[in-house]
Amino acid sequence: MLARFTYRMATELAPNVAFKAAYLYGFKGMKAIHSYKRRLKNDELYPPFMFVALTNTCNLRCQGCWVEKVGKARHMTPEDIDAVIENGKKQNAYYYTLLGGEPFLHKNLMSIFERHNDCYFQVITNGMFFSEETVQKLRDLGNVTPLISIDGMQDQNDMRRGEGTFKTIMDGLDRLKKHKLFFGIATTATGKNMEEVMSDEYVNMFIEKGAMYLWYYIYRPVGEEPHPEYCMQKQQIVDMRRRLLKLRRKHPILLIDTYWTAEGEAFCPAATGLGFHIGPEGSIEPCPPLSFATNKVQDNRDDLFSTINESEYLRGFQQFVKNRTKGCVILEHPQELASFIRDHGAVDYSTRDALSEIDSISPRHSHHLPDEEIPEDYWVYRFLKKQVFFGMGALG
């Protein structure tokens, strides 16, 4: 697998794209991890990467999405974006995941990449905006890796994301491959598509399309319409873990998960301060599905380091999770989570009543599987989880 993947990287990527991925993502990512570990020893809290939601607007209406799409449109200001990134640079953090809504609907998106060409950006997108002009611009920039959301083959994907989206995405992938970009696929595993998305056929489809990584998530029933029928049962999660390890040894593509350490133990990036979520209004939130904050980027005259370290809410969230699970408190302890948010007086930035939504979730299994942990059995992934992807919050 490693030799074939190395060959793909050498032959399928444009030279400037390959160099910037290796330097800005790989090398600087490792430096970010080491700085993060040094801060932990000094009881300083600042993540090596950030989720940054540029807007809450979107052109799709996907089932089970937690982002409001019919209320007031919100777009992050250039000032807030620059403040987040410049604060990160001071802490040796040069990697940012941009999301929404749909980040390509933010009119200043390309200028972010240009202004901060010493940083690396992952853009989580629905894949509807890959015109020839846009893809050529991304190739010229070189410091952007698109992560395209696809949730199964055509029938499964279009059931969640809308009729015709699969074909449009596939056409966009062809353009990304033609221009030799470094890009990946984001797939949410659900109770309905797990067998399909963890198959050899599914992985091979994206290798042929030119994707260099496939990033798996587990469905969470959050949002105004949570669609609990998509939730995975415990045995499905265990089976997903087993299949993931087998697929990793077979295919020349990085298969990333956000859930398990090299030892196979469950993990929550927000609970260890690896990555927080910045909302379109500058709200500093524990993670993307939790749109609650007590602080904003603008606090302390844009001194994000001081704001995060002084936040009882963000520090308290870490301890709250650690006292209950190594997995996801949204799934396992939703009512206690709602009480924690309420007790800290956190403001809801969802434009809905997201607190009531969490309070109404039925507790379920998450990826925390005590006594059923399955360690990584391939040295490549053990190394990546401890050195590179660990700091990126991917753990895959």
Automatic annotation (TrEMBL):
Q: Which stretches are transmembrane?
A: none
Iron-sulfur as a keyword of this entry, yes or no, is yes
This protein's UniProt keywords: Iron, Iron-sulfur, Metal-binding, S-adenosyl-L-methionine
Matching InterPro entries, A to Z? Aldolase_TIM (IPR013785), rSAM (IPR007197), rSAM_sf (IPR058240)
The residue ranges of the Radical SAM core domain are: 44-254
Q: Which GO terms describe its molecular function?
A: catalytic activity; iron-sulfur cluster binding; metal ion binding
Needed co-factor(s): [4Fe-4S] cluster
Enumerate the Gene3D superfamilies for this protein: Aldolase class I
What Pfam families does this protein's entry cite?
Radical_SAM (PF04055)
> What name does UniProt use for this protein?
Radical SAM protein
State the organism of origin: Acanthopleuribacter pedis
